[in-house]
Structures are given as C-alpha cells and as structure tokens.
Amino acid sequence: MSQQGSQQSQQQPEPIYLKDYKAPAYLIDHTDLRFELYEEETLVRATLKVRRNPARSGKSPLELHGHESLELCRLSIDGEVLSERDFSRDDELLHIADVPDEFVLECLTRIHPQLNTALEGLYKSDGMFCTQCEAEGFRRITFYPDRPDVMSVFRTTVEADRKLYPVLLSNGNPVESGSADDGRHFVTWDDPFPKPAYLFALVAGDLAVLEDSYITASGRKVKLQIYGENKDLDKLDHAMLSLKNAMRWDEEVYGREYDLDIYMIVAVDFFNMGAMENKGLNIFNTSCVLASPRTTTDAAFQRVEGVVAHEYFHNWSGNRVTCRDWFQLSLKEGFTVFRDSEFSADMNSRTVKRIEDVSMLRTAQFAEDAGPMAHPVRPESFIEISNFYTLTIYEKGAEVVRMLHTLLGAETFRKGSDLYFERHDGQAVTTDDFVQAMADASGRDFTQFKRWYSQAGTPRVEVSDSWDAAKGVYSLTLRQSCPATPGQTEKLPFHMPVAYGLVAQNGVELEAGVLELTDSEQTFTFDDLPEKPVPSLLRGFSAPVKLSYPYSDEQLLLLLKHDGDGFNRWDAGQRIAVNLMQQLIEDHLAGKALSLPDAMVDSWRAVLNDESLDPAMVAHLLRLPSEAYLAELAEVIQVDAIHAVREFLRKALAVALQPEWLEAYKRCTSDEPYSPDAESCARRALKNLALGYLLATDEDALLALAEEQFVDADNMTDQQAALSLVVHSGFREAGQRLLDDFHTRWHHEALVMNQWFAVQASDPWSGALERVKTLQEHPLFDAKNPNKLRSLVAAFCAQNPVSFHAQDGSGYRYLGDWIIKLNKKNPQIAARLLTPLTRWKRYPQAAQQLMTAELERILAQPELSKDVYEVVSKSLA
Ligand code: B3K
Ligand code: ZN
After folding, report:
1. Which end of the chain has fewer CB atoms at under 10 Å, N or C?
2. Are 817 and 777 in contact (CB under 8 A)?
3. What is the spatial distance between Cα 354 and Cα 346, in angstroms, rounded to a whole number?
C-alpha cells in the first residue's frame, strides 16, 4: 500500500489527446538560424518572423517549446531585450504573455551536443555533429513552436573550426560560404520550401563524399551526394544506385519529381532509428546506407535499397505534404512504407517481397495489436510520441493504404494520389484528408473504411462454404469480428477487400476477383461452376486479418501446387506446417513421442525438386514457420516446446531429405562474382537454407562443408550464413573457431562486428546469457551506440526466446537492468528494448509473475523517462 501511495504522489506524465487539437496561435513565416559549434558548447541564434494565426480568434500568449537542457542566454522582440518578468518557463514551454500581432523574435541559446546521449536534437556521433529532430527533437536545439503544423522557410548558417569540420551541411541549397576568425569557417544554406522543424537538419564533420547527378523527367539536373567516413567511401555505390532508381520510379509511378537542386545523404554511426528524411539532407544510420559485397549480406543490401527509397519518397509523402499533428503519423509513414514496398517489389521479386512483409506483419505487428501497447493506426492519445513509431503506424498503416489500392485499382488510386498531392502541397494535413482525396477521385464512399484508422486490433475472418451440386452454385460465408484492445471493447465491422480465386481439383482456376466484406456476416455466391472448388482466400494478403477456413491437408496441398497466386501458394505451405507443428507442440507437452508424417516429406521433396520454381520461392516454402510466428499464434506461449518441436522437425526433414538438400546446395553454388540482384539472392537463399538443414543432420562431413563455405566465401551473405548456422547448430568448438576467425578478419568493420555480436546473442544455448554479459565488456561494444545495443541486448531479448525466457528469470532481470541503466541516457532505446517484457500476458503463470515483477521493479525507479513510464505503466495496467 505504502509503496503504491508513494508512486502516486510522484508526478506522473499526462497523456495528450487528439480531441484536444488546436491550430497554432502563431505562425513562423521565416526562421533564420546561426550555429556556432565549439568543442564544449554550441551557441544557437534564432531569428523568427512571427505572426498571429488569422485562423485563431482572440489574443493568446506565445508558447515556444524548449527542452529543460536549453540555456536561454537572451531573448528579444523587435530588438527589445526581454527581462525575466516578461516571460516564464516550465519543463516544456516558454510563455511570453504579451506579444504584438507581428514581430521578430530573437533568441540566443546555449546547448551541449557533446553531452547529448539521447541522440535527439543536436548531438555528436563519433567526431561529427549531426541532428535528429523528428518527432520533438528541435526543442532541444532552440525555443520554437516544435509542432508539425507550423511550417516555415529556413535559412541556416553553420560556423565551426575549418580543420575539424571541413564539411558543413544543412537543408536546401548552399548560398554563401567563407572564413571566420580563429581558423573557423561558415556555410549558409537556404531552403525555399516551408517545412516543420522536425525536418530540420545540420551536419558538421570531416567527411568523404560520393557524388553523382540525376536528370529529372522535366530535364533539371540534381546533384546527388552521399557523405560518410573516408574508409567507407567504397560502400556507397549501392545507396547511390538505389537513390537514382527511386527517383526514376517516383516519376514513373506517382508522377513526382524532386524539387531542390541538391539531394544529400549522410551516414552516421550513432542513430536511434534507421534513417531520417530531413528536407534535402537525409541522415542515415550507417546500417541502412553502407553496402559492399564483402561486408554486407543480401538482406542488408535490400534493406539499404528500401530505406534509401523510403526516405526519398518522403520528399512528397511527408515533406511537401506533412502531418497536422503526430496522431497523423501514419499519414506519412503508412503511405511511404506502401510506396517503398511497391518499389522494392518492382526492383526485385514481387511475391518474395510480399512474403517477407507479411511474415513480419503477422509475427510482430499482430503481436503488438494483441499486447498492452495496441493502438489504432491513428492513435487517440499518447504520453510520448517516440513510443508510437510502431509496426502498427508503419506496417499496418501501409496495409491500410494497400487496401485502398486494391479497392480502387492502380489507375484510380493514382488519380487519388495526384489529387492528394495537388490539393495539399505545402500543407500539414490528416489521414482523413488522404482518404477524402481517394474518395473524391473515385466517387466512392470510404466512411466505413476509415474504421481501419480508428479501431485497433487484428480482425478475425471466419469463412465457411456450401456447395449445391445440382445447380453448380458455390457460396462462401464470411464472418468478421475484432478482439477488444486497451480502451476499445466494442468494434464495428471493417470494410475489407478479400481477394480470392476458386481452384478446381485439376488446379485450373475457375474464377478470381475481390470480395468486399462490409458486414459482420456476408454470403457471396458463385454460379455455373462445374465442380466444388477449393477457395484460395485473401490472396496477396489483401487485408491485415487472421483468416480461418477449415482446410483439409489435401486442399492445402492442392493450393501449394496450383494456386495462381504466389503468395497463397506459400501461405498454403505455411498452413500445413503450422497445423503440424501445433499438433506436435501438444504432443510434446503431453510427453508423447514426436513423428514426422510421410506426406510432409513427400510434399517438401516435390517442392525441392521442382526446378521450374524460383529458388527464392523454394527457400521460403521450405523454411519452417519461425518460433516467433508460432508464439504469436499460440493461446499460451510455451517457449521451450515451440523450440523443441521446430528443432525436431528441422532435424527430421534434414535427415529424410539429406540427398536432396545436398543436391540443392550444389545446384545453387556458383562461381559467378557476387551480385545483389534478385536472382542471385534467391540462389544464395536456397543454398544457405540447404546448408542449415545439412548441418541439422549433425554430420561432421557436412560441418566441413560449412567451414569451407565460411573460408572460401567472397561475400558476407555466404560467410555470415555459415557462421551463424555452425554456431546455432550447437557445434561449440567449430563455432568458436569460426567466431575467432571472423573477429580477426572483421574487427575493423563496425557493421560486420554487429553481426558477430548478434550471432552470439541469438544463439539458443544455455550459456548464452553469460556470453552476452562477457561480450558487454568487449572493447568494440559501446552502450551509447544503439546499433551495438540492438546487436547484443535486443538480439538476446527478442531473438533468443529460449534463453530470454529461462525459468529462473535471469533473462528478464538482465533486460530490467539495462532498462534502468538506459532510462535517462537514451529513453527512446530503453522503451524500445522493453517490448519483450510487455508481452507477459501471453506466457504461462510462472513466467508472468517473473515478468511483471521485473516491470514493477522498473516502475518503482525514480525519475522514469516518459518513454519508459508509458510502456511500463500501460503494460501493467
Ligand atoms: N521519419 C523517421 C523516423 C524518425 C523517428 C524519430 N523518433 C524515419 C522514417 O520513417 O523514415
Ligand atoms: Zn518514414
């Protein structure tokens, strides 16, 4: 009791609500910033042209956001210095009660980027200065209305020591540069496009640059520059190519051209997220921009391509048209993820891209939707917006846009996006505005559809069917429901497209189309059919739902062989494997012996031997559903049973098909020089899948094959695969040998060493936690660098379920200790790392108790950041 009492007496952060939105009281027509960067401190001079917002009636005080770390040195209005009586300051805001309707505000602020470990605002990454302002980082730089609906034209001068910081960058075009006293120099940048403060960026450092150019569709020449450390100059070509491809694609598919004369990307090592779309000056985590065959895996090559495109696409979907408030975050993120995934689909294999996206959505986003942080695509409230850069906003948001695309068709959708960009260019708008543009361009009514933005949770769709043989009439009945989520108990029916095909016993497609489900129960009939078809439902995963239909194994095998939709072929295979694995998990828990049915071996053999199939498709078809996916599907997550069953099946399939795996391995081995194109990636994917199965046979001769691949590989995909497969297959001695060898080869490459940490942290063996603790002391580990935390701490807690969920609770305590350590230093990362603990309700009783005890220990800490407080308190609610 007493402890609860003391917690309540601490002042807890309050949520803010969408319903409380008010237009800004003042607008900033022009923002002039002057930065003087020094080793101990930075001075920021801001000159703002302020005007009362004519859309707001009555007089209001001027309120500027300002983080507690800002030192206010001087404040003046129209040249008159304000005294302390003229303004007041609290934790978040500076209030000036009495201001004219139009005035110039000047403000001198002192900040300390060198001490900024939160990596928000202006901070130092290794030796360079850089910024991250989204969502609310600009208020750590100067006093300003730091909200996305205040859009201003920026002019920025950066001054620093010329030797230490020869490169000085900001948004827009460079307009002036020169020398200053004491070996210093300056550059002035002018950005003519009004933008909110979250898109501001500044970089100062000693950087190398890769330069190229791009001619836009209308014939304008744009200078392209990618900056990084000198030693990484050879790793920038793939990002440059991806950028040019993205620029062309956006012209061709969306009719969108780039607008400034220069587009810059800067790679930094210390970064909380993947990348940031600052106007004309993207700042990227090195992990999302550097790529070379020797140091980068195929997956990372594709990630670079996708993220470079994503940030580029934001120039229209995010920058030219931005969000009115942060509740609308998915307006730019969902749409831009949809755009980048279509781009990647066009550049590589469409089916494979869809399989990858859906696997992630169904595993991680569905789990989020079923957890305590579940929220709608347009949330109604938040305590800390940084906690809402979620899979729901990004991935489910993209699925919502995809559904509009499916409902309208490509051509009408394009009319809608044209209308949206034209209508709202230069504005800060809402998801309603986006949907309205789609509705106006198509003449359709999307009132019900908008529930996808306001209702959280993953809908269920149950399908049953009937067949009237005499009339040749087949009917499908669809029933939808949606489970309760925090704050939302009752849900109304969604409007969802259900793409389908009807497949005959000989594999021929009888009919295909898109059903529109709008009611809680609806029946669709199909006439004149020659036989009872097998329904292929939710083709291409046309809606983000859990669909069930009582398929027999024979029906699934038919779809696996013949479905005209590649995604559903894969999904049929997944359903077969999931059904079997769920049965085996039950058997395992009941102490029964496990066995592999012959039918499964036969169908896998058929897929493996089918050389007409795309090897990437084969690799996806023959990869067993992940432990994380099985966990998401489970009523109660039995971590050890899931792991044991998956291992049993892997070994059984390895042994049963050993000659076929070896044959596939050889077939996919090639002497061609490395190329990251889709076909070569597919070949390597199948080869390394086969290697994994071969190692699962525990035969030493096959271990030699893996070691040979490790040593001979001319690319990181093959080398990393051999390393992680040997380590994770439990060959302790050989694993250590390869780890040591890998360390010797790559200790000078930070990103490669992240893999080395991650392979060890995600190794499912009993010594993993001790090893992770030892690795924390490794000279290359740095707790201030989010990439290092992700590759060690997050890899252990989120990708090593058997070790994280050890029954003695040691994994939970380990994570709790980290959260407490990072709470103040880097709240965003601390809150993100917490995710695995928040899912406690899904585990057996004993684990629940240990997990909640750890959450309570965190909640009882003094001075919790808003980020951590929000996640922990909602998890315990
Ligand atoms: N818009 C940025 C995300 C910034 C997150 C800040 N906490 C990256 C992106 O989605 O493109
Ligand atoms: Zn984005």
Report:
1. N
2. no
3. 11
Residue 141 lies in a domain: yes
Residue 112 maps to which CATH number?
Answer: 2.60.40.1730
Preceding omega of 135 cis (within 30 degrees of 0): yes
Percent of the chain with pLDDT over 70: 99
pLDDT digits (tens, 9 = 90+) for 252-281: 999 999 999 999 999 999 999 999 999 999
Domain CATH number, residue 402: 1.10.390.10
Residue 557 CB neighbour total at 10 angstroms: 20
Segment 37-56 mean pLDDT: 98
Among 158, 185, 206, the domain boundary falls at 206
Residues 449, 384 within the same domain: yes
- Measured by CA distance, the residue closest to atom 8 of ligand 1 is 276
* 145 Cα–ligand 2 center, Å: 22
Is the full-model pTM beyond 0.70? yes
Determine which one of 136, 311, 342, 749 is catalytic: 311
Ligand 2 centre from 283 Cα, in Å?
12
Distance 802 CA to ligand 1 centre (A): 32
CA distances from 874 to 606, 818, 823, 861 (A): 48, 19, 16, 16
Residue among 69, 149, 170 nearest 111 (CA): 69
Q: Is 119 near ligand 1, meaning CB less than 6 Å away?
A: no
Q: Are both 379 and 494 inside the same structural domain?
A: no
Domain range for residue 720? 705-746
CA dist list (Å): 573 to 503, 504, 562, 657: 16, 18, 12, 17
- Confirm whether 679 is a catalytic residue: no
Judge if 489 and 417 occupy the same domain.
Answer: no
Q: Give the burial string for 588-614 (b: 16+ CB within 10 Å, else e).
A: beeeeeeebeeebbebbeebbeeeebb
Q: Please name the amino acid found at residue 101.
A: D
- Among 550, 578, 601, residue at a domain's last position: 550
The domain that holds 473 is classified in CATH as 2.60.40.1840
pLDDT band at 10 (very low <50, low <70, confident <90, very high): low
In the chain, the number of structural domains is 4
pLDDT of 6 reads 41
Residue 633 to residue 370: CA distance in whole angstroms:
11
- Percent share of the chain, pLDDT over 90: 97
**Does residue 386's CB lie within 6 angstroms of at least one atom of ligand 1?**
yes
Read off φ and ψ for residue 701, nearest 5 degrees.
-60, -35
326 in ligand 1 pocket by Cβ < 6 Å? no
The pLDDT assigned to 7 comes to 43
Average pLDDT of the chain to the nearest whole number = 97
